[in-house]
What we know:
Elements: H1 10-14, H2 30-33, H3 63-75, H4 79-88, H5 91-95, E1 97-101, E2 106-109, E3 117-118, H6 119-125, H7 137-156, E4 162-163, E5 182-185, E6 193-195, H8 200-217, H9 225-241, E7 257-260, H10 271-274, E8 300-301, H11 302-322, H12 326-346, E9 348-349, E10 352-353, E11 356-357, E12 363-364, H13 377-380, H14 388-397, E13 405-407, E14 412-414, H15 426-434, H16 439-450, E15 462-463, E16 471-472, H17 477-493, H18 495-498
Antiparallel strand pairs: 1-2, 3-4, 4-6, 5-7, 8-11, 9-10, 11-12, 13-14, 15-16
The structure holds 2-acetamido-2-deoxy-beta-D-glucopyranose (8 copies).
Amino acid sequence: MKLGLRFGSLTAIVSTVSLAAVAQADCPDYTTYSQSPQGNASTGPLGLPYMRPDPACRTFNSTIVEKVISDMTTRLKDPDVARLFENTFPNTLDTTVKYYDQSKNLAFIITGDITAQWLRDTGNQFAHYRSLLSLDKDLATLVKAVINNEARYVTQYPYCGAFQPPPESGLAPTHNDWADGVVVNPPVNNQTVFECKYEIDSLCGFIKLSVSYYQATKDTSMMNNNWLYAIDQIFRVINEQSQPSFDANFNYVSYYNWTGTPGASYSPAVDNSGNGEPKGYTGMVGTHHRPSDDLSVFAFLTPANAMLSVELQNLATILDDAKLAPNVSAQAKQWSKTIEEAIWKYTVVDNIFAYETNGLGSRYVMDDANVPSLLSLPYLGFLNRTQPAFVATKKMLMSRQNPYYAKGANFSGIGGPHVDAWNPWPMSQISNVFSTDNDAEILNSLYTIVNNTDGLGLIHESVSIYDESDYTRPWFAWANSYFAEMLLDLAQRKPHLIFKDNKPYTPGM
Ligand SMILES: *[C@@H]1O[C@H](CO)[C@@H](O)[C@H](O)[C@H]1NC(C)=O
Ligand SMILES: *[C@@H]1O[C@H](CO)[C@@H](O)[C@H](O)[C@H]1NC(C)=O
Ligand SMILES: *[C@@H]1O[C@H](CO)[C@@H](O)[C@H](O)[C@H]1NC(C)=O
Ligand SMILES: *[C@@H]1O[C@H](CO)[C@@H](O)[C@H](O)[C@H]1NC(C)=O
Ligand SMILES: *[C@@H]1O[C@H](CO)[C@@H](O)[C@H](O)[C@H]1NC(C)=O
Ligand SMILES: *[C@@H]1O[C@H](CO)[C@@H](O)[C@H](O)[C@H]1NC(C)=O
Ligand SMILES: *[C@@H]1O[C@H](CO)[C@@H](O)[C@H](O)[C@H]1NC(C)=O
Ligand SMILES: *[C@@H]1O[C@H](CO)[C@@H](O)[C@H](O)[C@H]1NC(C)=O
C-alpha cells in the first residue's frame, strides 16, 4: 500500500494527531486503525469487517445518523454492501470532527489521514447528510459552525484550498512538506493555510455546503457579515481569473502565481513564472490546479466551471429566498449564465466535452477521477444523464480514448496523474453510478467498488489494476461519504437493485 503521495512525508503529519481536542487520548489513530480489519466480519461472501471506532472515540454523535444506518442495513439485501454502508455513512462524524465549539460557532473538519481542512473535501464529506439537517438540529448546528470557519478562511485567503485549525481550537498547525520552498502570490501565512493551491471548485464546495444548510434550515443567521464578505471574495476571484493572460497591449496579467523552488521543494517549478499555460477569454473562470491538487494543463477546467455555474445559480436562489444582497444575487445569476454558455460554446466539439481548454483553440480530451469530473456532470446538476453530448462523452471516457481509463482483472475506472495511470479511483465508479439508469451498469460499478476494498470495508483513493492490495489512502472521508451518498441515491431511485423489496427509502420519510 502506498501512502501520502499527495504529501511526501505523511508520518510528519500523522505525528500531530495526538493533539486532538475531540478524540480521547487513548483512542487509536484511525490512519493505523483503518489499515487492518477490526470488528467482526459481515456474513456476505467478502466478510467485510466492522470498522467504526469505539463509541467513546467517535468525534460526533447523531441519533438520526444511527437511525439511517439501522434503516438501511435492515433493508439492504447483500450483507457486504450493508457493512460498507454502516462503515462509510458515519465516517465523517465518527472520525473527522477534530474541533467543535458551538458557542464560538466554529468547527474544524479534517480530510481523513491528513490533518487539514480542505474546502472541497468538507463540502463533500457532509453532502450525504444534506437530507438529515432538517431532522437533527445538532447536526445542522455543526454544519453551520463548519461554514462559519470556512467563511473566515475564504475571506482571508480566497485563492487557497486547504487550511490549518482555527487558533481557538488550541490545535497546533500541521507542517506540510509539499508547501516547503513554494512561492505563492498573494503570499500566505502557514499558521492559517495548509496549502495554497488555487482550485475554483474549492470555492464551489463552500457555496454547496452553505446552500445545503440554508435549504434545510432556512436559517439566515448563517449569512452573517463574515459569510457575505467571503462571497464577495469569491466574486473577486471570478473576475480576476476569467481575464486573459495578455491584455490588449500584451501586458501579462497575473493575480495569482505558484511555483516550487529547486532544491528547497518537493513541488516542481511551474512555467511562466508560476502562472502555467497562458489562456484567452471565454467567459469561463480559469483554475491553477485540478481538484486532485495536480497542476492544470490548460486553465479552463470544464467540470469545475460546470459546478461553478450550478452553485452560483443555487447561491442566487438562497439569497433571493432570504431577501438578502440583491446585487450579489444578480451577479451570481449573470456569471452562472455566462459560464454555462461558454462551456457549450468552447469545450464541446463533435458532441464531446474536453476536460480542459485554454480559450485559444487548444483542448485536452480526458477525465480525471476527482469530483468535479466530466463523468460527474449529472451528479453536479449541470445536465441530465440522457443529454446526447453527455452520453457520447461518457462512452469515450470509459474507454481507451481517455488516457486515464484503465482496466484490470478485478478493478477498473478512471484515475489521473495524481497517483498513476494504472491506479483508477473508486470515486470514478461512484460517479458512473450517478451517471446511468442502466441496472446492469449500476451493479457492475457498485460491485467493482465493493469487491476491491482489500478486505478493509472502507473506500480508498485509488486501487491498482494489477493488485487490489496496492491502494492509496486508507482513511479518505470524502470517498466514504460519496459511496454512502450513492447508496442513498439508489435507495430512492433503484430500490430493487439493493433492497430485499422494491420500496424506495428516503431518510426521515
Ligand atoms: C459483532 O460486532 C457487533 C458490533 O460491534 C457486536 O454487536 C456483536 O456482538 C459482534 N458479534 C460477534 C459474534 O462478535
Ligand atoms: C459519543 O457517544 C459516546 C457514548 O456512546 C461517548 O463516549 C462519546 O464521548 C461521544 N462523543 C462525543 C464527541 O460526544
Ligand atoms: C511555516 O514556515 C516557516 C518558515 O518557512 C517554517 O519554519 C515552519 O515550519 C512552517 N510551519 C508550518 C506549520 O508549516
Ligand atoms: C504574481 O502575482 C502577483 C499578485 O499576487 C503579481 O503582483 C505578480 O506580478 C505576479 N508575478 C508574475 C511573475 O506573474
Ligand atoms: C453588494 O453591495 C454591498 C453593499 O453596497 C457591497 O459591500 C458588496 O461588495 C456588493 N457585492 C457584490 C458582489 O457586488
Ligand atoms: C435531459 O436533457 C435533454 C437535453 O437538454 C432534454 O431534451 C430532456 O428533456 C432532459 N430530460 C429530462 C428527464 O429532464
Ligand atoms: C465481484 O466478486 C464476485 C465474487 O467473486 C464476482 O462474482 C463478481 O463478478 C464480481 N463483480 C465485479 C463487478 O467484479
Ligand atoms: C482478483 O481477485 C481475486 C479474488 O479475490 C484475487 O485472487 C486476485 O489476486 C485479484 N487480482 C488482482 C489483479 O487484484
